[in-house]
């Protein structure tokens, strides 16, 4: 695929540096094995498990028009194989964006090493959040969730997913699972790994929970809201890294951030607390999508509130760090200005003193002959 970075030297084969430089090509070869498996009859059935969505059932005639699809899907063990294949696709796309977009920006802008890491992170997340927001909004519109909000909390027994809904969740899981090996491929610093692992783990936990409990529409709506706020965050970060005069844009994003967290909490409380899975059937059954029990409601609400509190705390911590850094920079600039002004004063003072010293003998007037 030609994703290998050009370097001045060729590292030894199968060495760590070789894997880091050529990981996209290696992953592409692994993915090609699954595609080639479709050619042969003996391996086609196994390859299809990795390439296409599994666990489909024919939709009843009454629900076929409402579903907008001839088949509906539920989750199962075979989904792990599909997630694995699309995780490989996510690694390839990640490497393509890195080499053909972000690396060119680095060479043009000549960022420092610290800024390069931040631009890489914000750039990759911006692309993912942008397409996820567009895709998720399209699904909400096509399944009439915006025109009929009751679909967000409606959960009938034997709940199923449409093709686009299941493929969205499979893609989301694949992307966040691919973020773990990317910590190694991108040479993430050891002090940044815990923060990244927690960030990735929280997304996986909530997406998986919505997927397994058939909270598909609710999870999709919350993801779109969350991704939109995160998109603004990383876009403001990119503008700030390119030119620090965009500091006001970051302040504007903070307002949108708080509003996004409030809307997310309101939607979660209204949906889970009052309408989720109906109010009559109290028999819990996660397989059929009935999670209308007090324990499940408390777990979902606690999880939603916890993630919002965690993200808000990270924002406050980030702003405090930036405030301290800005104050230190201002203090250092003031000290430099004072030192420069004092040097100029001393230099000017020395020039005056050397010409008007008290102990210098006055010039004698020459006698006229």
From TrEMBL:
Residues 360-369 have a biased composition (Basic and acidic residues). Its main location: membrane. GO terms for biological process: protein insertion into ER membrane; SRP-dependent cotranslational protein targeting to membrane, translocation. GO terms for cellular component: endoplasmic reticulum membrane. Residues 117-326 form the TLC domain. Keywords: Membrane, Protein transport, Translocation, Transmembrane, Transmembrane helix, Transport. The chain crosses the membrane at residues 20-40, 83-102, 123-141, 167-185, 197-214, 220-241, 253-278, 298-320. Pfam families: TRAM_LAG1_CLN8. The keyword Transport applies. It is found in: Membrane. This is Translocating chain-associated membrane protein. The gene is TRAM1L1.
């Amino acid at each position: 695929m030609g994703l290998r970075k050009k370097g001045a030297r060729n590292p030894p084969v199968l060495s760590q540096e070789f894997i880091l430089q050529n990981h996209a090509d290696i992953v592409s070869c692994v993915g090609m094995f699954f595609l080639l498996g479709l050619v042969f009859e003996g391996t086609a059935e196994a390859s299809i498990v990795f390439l296409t969505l599994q666990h489909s059932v024919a939709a009843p005639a009454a629900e076929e028009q409402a579903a907008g699809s001839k088949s509906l899907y539920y989750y199962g063990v075979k989904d792990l194989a599909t997630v694995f294949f699309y995780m490989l696709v996510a690694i390839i796309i990640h490497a393509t964006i890195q080499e053909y977009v972000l690396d060119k920006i680095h060479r043009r802008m000549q960022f420092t090493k610290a800024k390069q890491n931040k631009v890489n992170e914000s750039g990759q997340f911006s692309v993912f959040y942008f397409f996820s927001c567009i895709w998720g909004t399209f699904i909400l519109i096509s399944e009439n969730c915006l025109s009929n909000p009751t679909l967000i909390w409606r959960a009938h027994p034997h709940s199923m997913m449409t093709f686009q809904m299941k493929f969205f969740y499979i893609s989301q899981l694949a992307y966040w699972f691919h973020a773990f090996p990317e910590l190694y491929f991108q040479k993430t610093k050891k002090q940044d790994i815990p923060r990244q692992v927690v960030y990735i783990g929280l997304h996986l936990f909530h997406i998986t929970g919505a997927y397994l409990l058939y909270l598909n529409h609710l999870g999709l709506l919350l993801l779109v809201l969350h991704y939109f706020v995160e998109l603004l965050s990383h876009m403001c970060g990119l503008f700030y890294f390119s030119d620090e005069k965009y500091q006001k844009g970051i302040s504007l994003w903070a307002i949108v951030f708080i509003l996004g967290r409030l809307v997310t909490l309101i939607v979660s409380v209204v949906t889970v607390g009052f309408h989720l899975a109906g109010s009559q059937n109290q028999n819990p059954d996660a397989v059929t999508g009935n999670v209308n029990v007090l324990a499940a409601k408390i777990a979902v609400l606690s999880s939603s509130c916890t993630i919002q509190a965690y993200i808000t705390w990270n924002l406050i911590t980030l702003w405090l760090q930036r405030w301290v850094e800005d104050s230190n920079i201002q203090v250092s600039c003031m000290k430099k200005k004072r030192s420069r002004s004092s040097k100029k004063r001393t230099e000017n003072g020395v020039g005056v003193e050397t010409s008007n010293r008290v102990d210098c003998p006055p010039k004698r007037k020459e006698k006229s002959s």
